Amino acid sequence: MKERLYEILNEEKAHEIIPFLKQLTAEERKSLVPTIKKLDREISKIVMTKNSYHTAGSADQHSIIDIASFVCMDQKHYGKNYWSLFRDKEKTGKILEWGCPPWFSDFINDSIDAEFTAFDYQDILGWAEKGYVQPRPELLGYHLSLQPHHLDKFPETLETHFWYLCEFPSKSLPFTREWLPLVQKLIAENKIERKRFLKECLLAANRNFNKNVTGWFMDAFNILKPSDEELILLQDELMAGLASVQSKAVNTMLVHLKKIVPAAEFKSSEFSHFLPNLLSSEVKTVVASSLSVTEKIFQKKRADTENLGMALSAAFVSKDESIQTKAAKIIHRYIPVSEDMKEALSHYADNILANVRPGLAQYIDDRQLELDVVDPEKLELISEESKVQEPENFEDLMFFLPQAIENPGTYYYDLALAGLVRFADSADSGSVKLFEPVFQKACKTIAKWEVHHFNVLLCNMIINYGLSLLERFPVQLKNLEKIYKRTCEDEATREAYSTYNKKLGPIREIYAGGLAMEPYKQIAVHVFDKMISGDKAPLLSTITHEPCWISPEALVERFEFYQNENVKPHDLDVQLALQRCSMERTSDSLSLVDEKLKGEYKELLLFFFNKNSTPKGKFEHPSWWMTAGITRSPEKVFEEFKEFGYDDIPKEFLTGNYDWKTIDSKKNSYYPVELNIRVPKYHLKKRPYQLFLEYFIAEQKHFSETPSFMWSFPNTLGNVFAKIIKDCLFYSGIAEVYERGLVLNTAQALHQMKKPLDAMGYLFLGTIFLDGDKVIRGTAAEIWLEHVSHKVMDNERLGRVIGLHEKLEWAPVKRFTDLVQHQMLNVSKDHNLALEQLLTHILLQMETPVTNLKKILDIYHEVLALNQSEADKNLKEKLNTWKDNSSLKKICNLLLKK
């Protein structure tokens, strides 16, 4: 039986596969499944040619396997293969005639989740007629929505299936441009009931369709131009649509509700139930439209206004002045003063803007808003709370390693390396059983096409360690050989591609990600050698405190170990340890250095821990001294280091300071305004004592792991920021997922680090305040809030960066003003004072008025009112100039009076 299948496949006798399968029993077909799977793998292997590639199997061979799979497998084994067999409809029909699988109906019904199918609505109708499929409404609606030309072909389509389409359309964007004209035509011909379709369009607002599908139904409703009589009949559906999560749907409902407010049948009280949620929306057009409908209701009928008025108080959730002003005018004009109204507004009193408060004087207590004074917390990089928990034994390590694989980057990676050094030789016949799932996870991870570079090193190390354990514990780890063999086979199929880099084999020979990863690879090789030899000398560079710090005391103790054991540390490990050492309280550890260390170790740390000292002693390891100097005092040039031969490294890389400017690219319409930062080119020069830093600055290509390097240079982040800015932040309109991911990861790492910013830190933070991604901007605001609380934020420097960007309109001002209103205003007295400084220095950079400058000035006026201060004297000259602009005249005069 297997031999016959092999023969049909090898001789490509596609016409013989169906007669062969017909003569088999159900049990025999089932027994063929493993063979079919094996043959499928063989013919699906990729064969590379000089100019292209193809699969190992021919078209006939693929057809043979497709048919055999369909006939012999159950639904679970057949999987979600919605295209291969069904390309040849005639052949599929013949197979279904003599052997329709019992799972076929469920299989077809499940196709609504498929990205692509080779069958369509008409095929499903044909199969349903023959009894092969019992189609669910979801299936018919989904497939019909992909093919408008079928609408008037079959009687049941318009009678039944079209309404399924309204309830269960495709999850993609199925509605091509001919859809709406066709629906309009069929409604005009009375083939589709107009009233029912209008109702279905409104019901779409709350059916959890995606944005595009919901939008299509809203467009359909608008194009049909419902009359006021129709709108009154559909009033319940219009009201229900106000609860939609899609702003387009809500705005559509509001536009049409406004038309029927004058009608006696309009349900004002029902609308008032929805009003608080509408006014709390983050979408300004929804809030503005809701206020327009509310005002029209008041104009129509002034009696029984209190409930609607109390609901209207929710408008003051918004910190937009135009919204608050409009709401205040409606209240003042239509709602009498009452205790209930005062109570309703009191809940929002702290949020009512200073410019709006006078208009509501009768309704609210017009006292000055008192914010809490926040006691600044001392910023501590090293504390008991931030101390890391390392694995304490082999069993702990086995539970920790999967976490390290799942969380690529250096935090878990470093602790995993330290654990492997300590406990690699601690396995015994009992505990070693815990290693198999770790080995399996490492193999599964490394077998992927795209693997994080730190995972390549860690997984390779785990796999090679597992192969060494297999020699010691062949019985307990007997499955490792099978897992490894399968992983090697998977990798062999990918090695045919020129872009694939080998990840299995001796760790020295694998590709781990280019120049930037080379130091980590060398340290990983060093660690693996220690594991095999049983050398338990600790790595110097393992962090002691989250997220990336080494305490000065721990560094001294580790150097002492190497000194006492007379063991030479790895050069790059020493440099990485120095780079990660917290410089917060190093002077406290000078006595410890004096007491415990001698020779070069002692002289190195005395220099490193004392910012006022000069380097002394024998410079046996120039790379250590240079790294210590760059980390401790990046701006300083040490005469003593001149003979080291590092003077060919551009000074930007040593200081972390780069020249930058925001430029108007008048000739480039695609990038009208750019952030231009000059990053010199650097090619790695081979030296006896290579700097860890050199590998990173020599990396020229885009590198997805760049944010991870922040944990290796936490004291000197300028080079990391410069790379991210140059690659990902040169233009505010950049929308690629890759760049957004890099910027977000960098911002989140900076937030975790809680370290005062340097020049490049302020450039990065000021730039992401204006980023197109809301989450990135929110992270920037969180960093600002925390740094202000710790009294380590220089708002003049930050304001200068944002102002220089916005002076040329690098990004829409609205991004920044929305962030200020929603996250930074009225947090505390200190934050309001800091915000005043920030806005002052942003405005001082401005020259001619920019789009939405009024919005910044409005917020500035609000902050001055909260702080009971007046506009900066250096700014008044600009305000006097700007007031000649008609749109700025009023706010400039208000600020000049302050």
From TrEMBL:
The source's domain of life comes to Bacteria
Q: Species name for this entry? A: Chryseobacterium vrystaatense
Name the record gives this protein: D-tyrosyl-tRNA(Tyr) deacylase
Check the record and name the InterPro entries matching this protein. DUF6493 (IPR045472), DUF7824 (IPR056726), DUF7825 (IPR056727)
* Pfam families, per the entry: DUF6493, DUF7824, DUF7825
Domain (DUF6493) spans: 2-285
- Limits of the DUF7825 domain: 653-897
Domain called DUF7824: residue spans: 384-650
